[in-house]
């Protein structure tokens, strides 16, 4: 996939997955903002009503505006408000779970009407400010058609006619059971959706097993008789005479058509929430003839045994811990392919995967005869040990299991981490290379934007590289050495282009260099002022093209270091959000016309559950003391390793041996000398594909005619207007047009029924690759 297509998320497994993903994206809180208290789902036409009963069984945080029925999580606005404010403990969601409020027959505009808002809805009005509203990018309520056709939903290509819209709504409950890959990538029309309504006995059998009498009551007499007849003929089971428990016994036994039923259940087990408990209640599950995967009790027992084995790892020597994890992985890896892993019932089997990688990587200490050799070994393989430790730390959902994993990770990781740091420090002490830090970031060209990510450790950069490459970008991951001490004040100036205007004094309480001109401390604002004088475009929170006449860009993003100091080992739980923040910024800059983005940082860090071991350094020997570095006072003698400060080599910086820490119980720390702290990434990101570039600079509407301005280096690129940007067949204009030498294009919409609909202007190359796209509303502002 070419990077120019940008950031379309992978297609969800089905409608349920797509809805859950969209809800999560809507609830993401930007840095510096409060977490939302609720997600409001407005549905002015009530199109989503047929799904709510099914969704309620798989989304326990879903509440509905309606008659008071707390057992069904339904009630009037004032009751919903009490749920949000958590004054009804018996009705509210678990702590940390954000409730979703489905508001049928309510439009978003109703809540924004202020004093004109209907009285019954007024208790919910202020929630649109403390919470989020689930809506399209253009601000409109999500309709079923819009969600199924949007890249933010299922990304289907839909025919744009009234008959298809009607058939789509009729088939909506059936779409919950249809995997996304069963739906054609070609344009879907009314006939395609009507085919979904044809009887599916396998699906109906599973639904009957999961809901029993409720399923029977949902059918008319003729439909029920037909269903029983098909089951008796194909499954050798008559639901009129047998129970769901009988069906569960046959499903566990397998054979014949029951293997097809099991395969259907495995594809989407969460759609049949009652079936797992039925299978758990089957008698004699350990008898001969039963498939072990189909017997959840077998998986339950295996998880309990694994829990006990993992708990013991914290108390055995390092070689034994490595050997034991390898043995456990061999015995439990197959369970990750079982259906119970999909249902969240095998968390420890899943956690074994990164734990086993950690054990394999931690079996040999990072070596190298020189600093250069050690750096090369770390940047090729060593960082993967750090990554495996991080992934193991966040591999389980519950606090109790995380504590269990923390002990195992510490037993595997700490000896490797300490031995690798001591070897690296020995190389520095014997003069085999330098750890004082490589030269800073030199001047960049005008088409490059520097992105500074505080505390971007090398393993996190490796994860970032993989994700950006998966989106079609070209990347080059290099490295440099952070200076001593590895703290932001000392190291960040080297990531800028103005490090040559700084020098070190004798006062290093804060490890901060000073400006050569005037001697003021090199604060973050002063560094930005110096960069502005050099002609860099300081973007702040903006994502935009470079201003004319500037000499490159500078933007700061991410909170890795801040979260590490704040959260300790729980930083691992927030890495996903930090990575997505970086990815969004990088791709946004490239889409705004920057030819390349260079990601730079200041230092790495050490992270160890339970805290780094303590090193004692008497306070009377130091001017200042941080977790992994201290300034030695005058000519005081200390047994600690001592290094010259990067900005003034005559200032002595004490650094503890191995991974020790001057402060007690610190799980996250930096400032010392170790591969993780000193070897930092330098990542260059460029657009994928060829050299053709195009940017949409303006979109205006006059009636049903769309005027588009495009900045491009190839006049033959085509400009189109589509209901689904990924599918050329979804074009709603008479024909796509070349940008031409002026880059000005006029597109005529062929059908007035599209007025007011969401659409996307796209620019494509001759191969059909999307070079740029921007959302619009047909006829907007006309």
Quick synopsis:
The protein contains 26 helices and 26 strands. The strands form 7 sheets. It has a 6-stranded mixed β-sheet, sandwiched between helices. Strand 20 and strand 21 (705-712) form a beta hairpin.
Class of secondary structure makeup: alpha/beta
Total number of beta strands: 26
Radius of gyration of CA atoms, rounded to a whole number: 30 Å
User: What fraction strand?
Assistant: 15-25%
Describe the structure.
By secondary structure, this protein is α/β, with parallel strands linked by helices. It folds into 5 domains: 3-195, no CATH class; 201-294, no CATH class; 296-429, no CATH class; 448-606 and 674-686; 694-777, Sandwich (Immunoglobulin-like), CATH 2.60.40.10. It contains 26 helices and 26 strands. The protein has a 6-stranded mixed sheet with strand order 7-19-12-6-11-10, with helices on both faces. A hairpin with a 2-residue loop joins strand 16 and strand 17 (648-654). The longest helix is centred in the middle third of the chain and has 31 residues, at 399-429. The chain is globular, with a radius of gyration of 30 Å.
């Amino acid at each position: 996939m070419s990077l120019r297509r940008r950031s379309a998320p992978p297609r969800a497994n089905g409608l349920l997955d797509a809805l859950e993903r969209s809800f999560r994206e809507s609830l993401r809180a930007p840095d510096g903002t409060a977490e939302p208290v609720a997600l409001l789902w407005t549905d002015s036409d009530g199109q989503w009503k047929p799904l709510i009963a099914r969704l309620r069984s798989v989304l326990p945080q879903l509440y509905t505006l309606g008659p008071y029925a707390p057992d069904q999580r339904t009630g009037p606005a004032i009751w919903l408000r009490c749920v949000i404010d958590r004054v009804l403990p018996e009705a509210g969601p678990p702590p940390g779970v954000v409730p979703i409020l489905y508001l049928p027959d309510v439009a978003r505009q109703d809540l924004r009407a202020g004093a004109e808002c209907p009285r019954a809805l007024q208790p919910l009005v202020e929630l649109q400010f403390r919470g989020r509203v689930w809506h399209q990018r253009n601000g409109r309520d999500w309709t079923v058609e819009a969600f199924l056709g949007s890249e933010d939903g299922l990304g289907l290509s839909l025919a744009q006619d009234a008959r298809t819209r009607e058939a789509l709504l009729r088939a909506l409950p059936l779409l919950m059971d249809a995997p996304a890959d069963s739906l054609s990538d070609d344009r879907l029309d009314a006939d395609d959706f009507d085919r979904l309504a044809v009887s599916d006995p396998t699906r109906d059998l599973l639904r009957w097993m999961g809901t029993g009498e409720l399923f029977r009551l949902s059918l008319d007499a003729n439909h029920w008789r037909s269903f029983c007849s098909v089951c008796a003929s194909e499954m050798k089971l008559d639901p009129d005479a047998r129970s769901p428990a009988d069906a569960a016994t046959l499903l566990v036994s397998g054979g014949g058509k029951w293997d097809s039923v099991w395969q259907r259940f495995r594809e989407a087990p969460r759609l049949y929430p009652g079936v797992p408990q039925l299978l758990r209640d089957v008698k004699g599950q350990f008898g001969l003839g039963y498939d072990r995967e189909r017997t959840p009790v077998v998986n339950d027992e295996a998880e309990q045994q694994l829990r006990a084995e993992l708990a013991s790892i914290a108390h055995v020597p390092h070689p034994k811990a490595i050997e034991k994890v390898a043995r456990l992985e061999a015995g439990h890896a197959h369970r990750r392919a079982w259906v119970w892993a999909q249902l969240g019932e095998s968390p420890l089997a899943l956690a074994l995967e990164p734990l086993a990688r950690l054990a394999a990587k931690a079996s040999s200490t990072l070596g190298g005869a020189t600093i250069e050799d050690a750096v090369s070994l770390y940047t090729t393989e060593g960082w993967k040990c750090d990554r495996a430790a991080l992934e193991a730390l966040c591999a389980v959902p519950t606090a109790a299991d995380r504590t269990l994993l923390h002990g195992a990770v510490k037993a595997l990781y700490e000896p490797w981490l300490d031995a690798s740091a001591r070897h690296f420090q020995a190389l520095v002490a014997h003069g085999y290379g330098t750890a004082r830090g490589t030269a800073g970031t030199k001047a960049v060209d005008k088409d490059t934007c520097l992105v500074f990510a505080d505390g971007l450790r090398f393993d996190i950069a490796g994860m970032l590289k993989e994700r950006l490459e998966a989106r079609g970008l070209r990347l080059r991951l290099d490295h440099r050495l952070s200076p001593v001490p590895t703290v932001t004040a000392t190291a960040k100036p080297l990531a800028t282009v103005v490090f040559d205007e700084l020098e070190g004094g004798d006062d290093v309480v804060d490890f901060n260099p000073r400006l050569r001109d005037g001697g003021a401390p090199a604060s973050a604002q002063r560094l930005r002022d110096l960069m502005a004088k050099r002609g860099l475009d300081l973007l702040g929170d903006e994502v935009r093209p470079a201003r004319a006449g500037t000499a490159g860009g500078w933007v700061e993003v991410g909170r890795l270091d801040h979260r590490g100091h704040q959260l300790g080992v729980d930083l691992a739980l927030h890495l996903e959000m930090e990575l997505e923040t970086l990815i969004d910024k990088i791709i946004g800059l490239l889409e705004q016309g920057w030819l390349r983005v260079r990601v730079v940082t200041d230092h790495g860090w050490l992270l160890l559950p339970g805290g780094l071991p303590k090193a004692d350094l008497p306070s009377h020997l130091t001017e200042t003391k941080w977790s992994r570095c201290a300034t030695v006072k005058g000519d005081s003698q200390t047994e600690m390793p001592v290094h010259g400060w990067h900005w003034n080599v005559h200032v002595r910086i004490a650094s503890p041996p191995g991974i020790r820490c001057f402060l007690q119980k610190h799980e996250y720390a930096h400032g010392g000398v170790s591969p993780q702290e000193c070897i930092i990434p330098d990542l260059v990101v460029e657009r994928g594909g060829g050299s053709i570039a195009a940017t949409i600079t303006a979109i205006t509407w006059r009636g049903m005619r769309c005027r588009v301005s495009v900045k491009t280096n190839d006049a033959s690129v085509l400009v189109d207007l589509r209901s689904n940007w990924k599918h050329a067949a979804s074009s709603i204009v008479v024909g796509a047009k070349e940008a031409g030498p002026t880059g000005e294009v006029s597109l005529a919409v062929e059908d007035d029924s599209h007025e007011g609909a969401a659409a996307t202007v796209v620019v494509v190359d001759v191969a059909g690759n999307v070079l740029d796209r921007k959302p619009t509303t047909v006829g907007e502002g006309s």
